[in-house]
Design a protein that fits this description.
about 70 residues; mainly alpha
């Protein structure tokens, strides 16, 4: 079976410790965090193995002075 193993884990078989979600989500974790930020920014659905919403920062754009 070892040649077919991906090195990942099933989501329901990790502990509820923070940070272990990356073991199950792998490279998709950042995208899931972005989706979570868009649809659940207040993190209402945070039970069990949670994906924290991405921290999105907005840069203030200062208009150039009129010339």
């Amino acid at each position: 079976m070892a040649p077919y193993a991906t090195g990942g884990v099933y989501m329901n078989f990790i502990s509820e410790d923070e940070g272990e979600e990356a073991l199950a989500y792998g490279t998709n974790q950042q995208r899931l965090a972005e989706v979570k930020a868009a649809y659940d920014p207040e993190n209402l659905f945070r039970m069990n193995q949670n994906v924290e919403p991405a921290r999105i920062t907005f840069l203030a754009i200062t208009p150039l002075a009129n010339r």
